[in-house]
Amino acid sequence: MLTLRDAGRRVGDRWLWRHLSFTLEPGESLGIEGPSGSGKTLLLRALVGLDRLDEGEAALDERPLEDWDLTRYRCRVLLVPQDPALEEGTVEENLRLPFTFRVRRDGHRAAKSDDFDRDRARSLLERLGADDLLDRPVRDLSAGERQRVGFVRAMLLEPRILLLDEPSAHVDPGRAEAMERMVGEWKDGGGEGEDRRAAVWISHDAGQLRRVTDRRISLAEAGP
Fold first, then answer.
1. Could you give the number of structural domains in the chain?
2. Three-state DSSP state, 49
């Protein structure tokens, strides 16, 4: 599904990692490990086309990222950042917004603006102890509530690949475990063949990575 070939990333004159290669297989959950400052978030940003690699390439379905229209690529490969970007307005307005985008209407899922399922959104929020958030203005949300909203938005959009950057960093252990179960259900619900789903995880919690991933890659072993 997603392939990284001989990739490298540097900050200034310092290489964070080089000669990094892996293939994300259909149905797989891959963990990315490394100490603080090793470039884990930069790797996920490169995989979604927000940052450029300094060497090597990423490819989806054997097609280099540079050959994709990025808006359509990001319908398939979705980054869930630790601190999600939310627009002014209510939580519901933020969850509805992606369904109004033209790429969602014309893209791989032929989504329409009325594809937003309010009942499902409320159900997903409820599983994370946040069912009362839909009508709340995002400016009033805590860091943990914002993180849960960003996570639910990703679940609603149903990409093929999730890139999860510390998705439960601001929530308590019970809600973190609920997120883990929801990602597992999302992945198992992808069907067969090209519809199968996969995930890449970053987490400061080594126990979480052991629970949710099939294998792990250490950036400390991909140094310059």
1. 1
2. coil
Euclidean distance between CA atoms 140 and 80, whole angstroms: 21
Identify the weakest region by mean pLDDT among 101-105, 175-179, 207-211. 101-105
Burial (CB count <10 Å: 0-12, 13-18, 19+), residue 224: exposed
Domain that holds residue 135: 2-222
pLDDT in tens, 88-105: 999 999 999 999 887 665
Per DSSP bridges, beta strands 55-60 and 63-64 are antiparallel
Q: Domain containing 198 — which CATH number?
A: 3.40.50.300
Phi, psi angles (nearest 5°) of residue 122: -65, -40
pTM of the shown model: 0.91
C-alpha to C-alpha distance for 96 and 102, rounded to whole angstroms: 13
